[in-house]
C-alpha cells in the first residue's frame, strides 16, 4: 500500500466529493475562492473544512460535498510541484457554478476529536450537521450533491440515506455496501492482507507520522519531510492540538483481532460492522437519485452494488465494469491483450457530473437501469432486472478424475490436503488497491494447494452472468476451516485464468431468513447468534456463493472449479496446514451452479 495509491483516489476522486461534516450556528460570510475554516459539530468538535466559492456568489449556488478520512488537502513545502491537484479539481467544479465543501472527518486530518472507527455514529451525525450548515450559508441555494470513491463513496451513500432534504443526488464509486462481507471479512474470513495495512496507513495519517507514511510510499523519511508538512491546517497554531486529540482514535488493527461476527463491537460499548454499513441505513424506498459504479474485479464492490440494487427501489443507475479500484485500470482477465488505453476515467467523471447536473437542474429522476460489461468481450449490456431474464441455471456435477459435467456424478470422494502456502498473489482483487496497481492474477494452471474439476472443451461460447453457487458435500479434519473456491477459464493451451471466487468459514455456514444484512443468495448473516460450531469429520453441505460476474468462456476453452484451504497473502489462516477436505460426489453430491445467459 502506498500514499500515492490513496492520494490517487483523492486526486481522481477529489472529483469524488462525497459527504458529511459538522455544524455551525451562524452563517459564515465568505467571498470567492478557497477558504479554510472550522465547522462546529453539534457537540462542539471543530471540523476542518475547505470551502471553494465561484467568482459570482450574488446568486446562491448548489454545493458538492466531500467528507474524507484521507486529509481533505495536503500542506506542501516549497513549490509543491504538481501538489495542488485537489485545488485544481475543486476549481474545475467551481468554474461550473458549484460551491465545493471538503471536510476532514473528526479524528482525522486537521479536524479535532477522536474517531471511534470508520463511518461511526459521530461521523454520520457530523454529515447531517454539515448539511444543515451548508443550507444556512448565504451562498447556498439549499441543494447539495455527493460524489465519492471508496471510503468517501460510503459517506456519499450515508448522506443519501440520511433523508436530509438538501440532498438531491449522489454518485458512489467503488464503495462497500456491506463492509464486513464485501471487504473486511468475505465469507466470514478476515482479509488481513488489506485491513492490517489500511489500518496502519490511516493511523499514520491521523498522527501525521511522516516516517511511517514514507515507508508506504517507498521513499525515505527525510525525503517526505522535505516535501510535505501534513494536512492543511485551518489555523497553523491549532494543528498540533488537533493531531494530539487523535491519540484517542480507535486502534482499528487491534480492534479487528477481536472481531469474528458482524455484530461484534469494534470497541467496548462501540458499534459493529452491522451498524456502520450503508445497507443498515438505506431505506428501501430511498428517493435520492443515485449513480453507483463498481467492478467485477474490485473486492466485493459488484456484490455490494447488486445488493443495493435489490434492496432499494428508488431511482438508481448501477454500472459494473472490469476496472481496478477507483476505475483507474482495465483489469479484464479474459481479454488478451487488454486494450492499449486504460479506462477513460475522465469520461467516467464527466458522466457523473452530468448526472448530478441533470438532477440539480430539475430533470426527472432517472429510470432504474443496470449497465454491465462482460469479461472476455468488453461488451456493455443494459438490463432492468438482475439477473437478466435470459439467464437460466446450469448445474454441473463434480465427478471422478477431476471431471466437471452436466448430469449425475458417480459416487465417490476426492480429498485435498491443505497447503498453507496457497495464494492468489499480491495483486489480486483484494490487495491491488493497496498499491494503486491493476488487478492481476498469475497463470493458475500449476498453482499449489488446489483440488480442481474441469469440463470438456466447450462447443460454443458460454456467457456466465450472475452469481455462481458452489454446493459442497464436505468433511474437514479440523474443528474450523476456511474454504475457498475459484471459477477459472482454461484455454486450448492449458493456460488457466481466474474469473471469480468465493470463500466461507465453517463457523458461518448456517443460512436462514434473517432480514437486512444477510447475503441474499444464501441468507447468511455472519451474526454471533447464527454461528454453528463444527465437529471434525462432520459431513455438512456448504453453500458458497461466488462473487457475481459476467464472463464469456470462449468455445474450445474449459471451465475449471478449484478448491483451496486458504489464500496466504490475503486472508487469515483459519485452516491448519496439512488438514484435509473430503468432497463427496454422487447423485446427492457436490455441484457448481452456473447462471448461463442464453441471449445472443
Automatic annotation (TrEMBL):
Protein origin, superkingdom: Bacteria
InterPro entries: AB_hydrolase_fold (IPR029058), CocE/Ser_esterase (IPR005674), Galactose-bd-like_sf (IPR008979), Xaa-Pro-like_dom (IPR000383), Xaa-Pro_dipept_C (IPR013736), Xaa-Pro_dipeptidyl-ppase/CocE (IPR050585)
Domain Xaa-Pro dipeptidyl-peptidase C-terminal, first and last residues per copy: 353-593
Molecular-function GO terms, alphabetical: hydrolase activity
Annotated TM spans: none
Pfam families per the UniProt record, alphabetical: Peptidase_S15 (PF02129), PepX_C (PF08530)
Gene3D superfamilies listed in its UniProt record: alpha-amino acid ester hydrolase ( Helical cap domain), alpha/beta hydrolase, Galactose-binding domain-like
Signal peptide start and end residues: none
Swiss-Prot/TrEMBL keywords: Hydrolase
NCBIfam families to which the protein is assigned, alphabetical: CocE_NonD (TIGR00976)
The protein, known as: CocE/NonD family hydrolase
Amino acid at each position: 500500500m502506498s500514499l500515492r495509491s490513496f492520494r490517487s483516489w483523492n486526486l481522481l476522486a477529489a472529483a469524488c466529493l462525497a459527504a458529511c461534516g459538522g455544524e455551525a450556528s451562524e452563517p459564515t460570510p465568505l467571498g470567492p475562492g478557497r477558504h479554510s475554516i472550522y465547522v462546529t459539530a453539534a457537540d462542539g468538535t471543530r471540523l476542518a473544512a475547505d470551502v471553494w466559492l465561484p467568482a459570482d456568489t450574488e446568486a446562491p449556488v448548489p454545493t458538492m460535498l466531500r467528507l474524507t478520512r484521507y486529509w481533505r488537502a495536503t500542506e506542501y513545502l516549497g513549490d509543491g510541484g504538481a501538489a495542488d491537484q485537489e485545488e485544481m479539481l475543486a476549481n474545475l467544479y467551481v468554474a461550473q457554478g458549484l460551491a465545493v465543501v471538503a471536510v476532514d472527518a473528526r479524528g482525522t486530518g486537521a479536524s479535532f476529536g477522536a474517531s471511534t472507527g470508520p463511518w461511526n455514529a459521530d461521523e454520520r451525525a457530523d454529515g447531517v450537521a454539515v448539511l444543515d450548515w451548508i443550507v444556512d450559508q448565504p451562498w447556498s441555494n439549499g441543494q447539495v450533491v455527493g460524489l465519492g470513491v471508496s471510503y468517501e463513496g460510503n459517506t456519499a451513500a450515508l448522506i443519501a440515506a440520511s433523508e436530509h432534504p438538501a440532498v438531491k443526488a449522489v454518485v458512489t464509486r467503488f464503495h462497500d455496501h456491506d463492509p464486513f462481507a464485501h471487504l473486511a471479512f468475505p465469507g466470514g474470513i478476515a482479509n488481513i492482507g488489506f485491513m492490517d495495512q489500511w489500518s496502519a496507513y490511516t493511523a499514520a495519517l491521523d498522527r501525521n507520522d511522516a516516517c511511517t507514511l514514507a515507508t508506504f510510499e517507498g521513499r525515505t523519511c527525510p525525503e517526505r519531510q522535505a516535501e510535505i508538512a501534513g494536512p492543511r491546517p485551518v489555523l497553523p497554531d491549532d494543528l498540533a492540538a488537533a493531531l494530539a486529540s487523535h491519540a484517542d482514535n480507535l486502534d482499528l488493527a487491534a480492534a479487528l483481532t477481536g472481531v469474528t461476527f458482524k455484530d461484534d463491537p469494534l470497541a467496548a460499548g462501540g458499534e459493529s460492522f452491522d451498524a456502520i454499513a450503508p445497507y443498515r441505513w438505506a431505506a428501501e424506498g430511498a428517493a435520492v437519485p443515485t449513480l453507483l459504479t463498481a467492478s467485477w474485479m474490485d473486492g466485493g464492490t459488484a456484490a455490494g452494488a447488486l445488493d443495493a440494487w435489490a434492496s432499494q427501489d428508488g431511482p438508481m443507475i448501477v454500472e459494473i465494469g472490469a476496472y481496478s479500484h477507483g476505475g483507474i485500470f482495465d483489469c479484464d482477465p479474459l481479454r488478451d491483450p487488454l486494450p492499449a488505453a486504460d479506462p477513460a476515467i475522465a469520461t467516467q467523471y464527466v458522466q457523473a457530473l452530468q448526472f448530478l447536473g441533470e438532477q440539480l437542474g430539475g430533470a426527472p429522476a432517472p429510470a432504474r437501469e443496470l449497465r454491465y460489461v462482460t469479461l472476455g468481450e468488453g461488451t456493455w449490456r443494459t438490463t432492468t432486472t438482475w439477473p437478466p431474464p435470459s439467464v437460466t441455471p446450469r448445474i454441473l456435477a463434480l465427478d471422478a478424475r477431476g471431471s466437471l459435467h452436466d448430469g449425475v456424478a458417480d459416487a465417490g470422494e476426492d480429498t485435498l490436503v491443505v497447503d498453507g502456502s496457497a495464494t492468489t498473489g499480491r495483486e489480486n482483487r483484494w490487495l491491488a488497491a493497496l498499491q494503486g496497481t491493476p488487478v492481476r492474477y498469475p497463470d493458475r494452471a500449476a498453482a499449489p494447494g488446489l483440488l480442481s474439476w474441469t469440463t470438456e472443451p466447450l462447443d460454443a461460447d458460454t456467457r456466465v452472468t450472475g452469481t455462481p453457487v458452489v454446493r459442497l458435500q464436505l468433511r474437514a479434519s479440523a474443528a474450523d476451516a476456511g474454504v475457498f473456491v475459484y471459477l477459472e477459464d482454461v484455454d486450448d493451451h492449458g493456460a488457466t485464468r481466474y474469473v471469480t471466487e468465493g470463500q466461507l468459514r465453517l463457523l458461518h455456514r448456517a443460512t436462514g431468513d434473517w432480514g437486512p444484512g444477510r447475503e441474499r443468495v444464501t441468507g447468511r448473516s455472519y451474526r454471533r447468534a447464527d454461528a454453528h460450531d463444527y465437529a471434525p469429520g462432520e459431513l455438512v453441505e456448504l453453500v458458497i456463493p461466488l462473487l457475481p460476474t459476467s464472463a464469456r468462456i470462449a468455445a474450445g476453452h474449459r471451465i475449471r472449479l478449484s478448491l483451496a484451504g486458504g489464500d496466504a497473502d490475503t486472508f487469515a489462516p483459519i485452516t491448519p496446514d496439512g488438514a484435509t477436505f473430503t468432497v463427496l460426489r454422487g447423485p446427492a453430491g457436490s455441484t457448481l451452479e452456473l447462471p448461463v445467459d442464453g441471449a445472443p
